[in-house]
Amino acid sequence: MNAFDTFSLTPALVLDLDNLRDIYQNLAAENHPDKGGDKQLFEKINLDYAILRSPAKRIKAIMDHQGIEYDARGAVSNDLMDLFMLVGALIQEADSFIRKKSAATSVLAKALLEAESMELQNKLSERIATIESNQSKITERFASPINDSELPQIARNLSFLEKWQAQLQQRYGSLF
Length: 176
Known about the structure:
Elements: H1 3-6, H2 17-31, H3 39-53, H4 55-66, H5 78-103, H6 107-112, H7 114-140, H8 151-174
């Protein structure tokens, strides 16, 4: 049984996420182990919900359903390579600052880092917004027919964008 079957949905790139959430909440409530539900089924419901909420994982689920091979080791498309370089540099900058901030022991040393922290927060926010914009551009294509041969590249692009977004959000959270 695939993720779509768990929620009695037809495999599709475009999903009504509000409807998915409602179905998930009902299934999770009905099958919660604290209410006598099956623990493995409850875990599958949670896993499948995460799969369907993520555009990258949803595409992979569709590809699996259709028997289309997927190789995660491929590269991102050329239009995302520049973003990859910017994200990598920003992650290094954030990691360096986080180390510097954790080494600061006095109140004065921490206060002196505040302006740099604010600047880094702004950079991270801007880059996260850029990633979200790229994700939106890709997922907007879901409303139109997409050739099956394009799905692996789209899945890779979205996977990288989701990974970069999570990495930047983690660094952003570490600044506080």
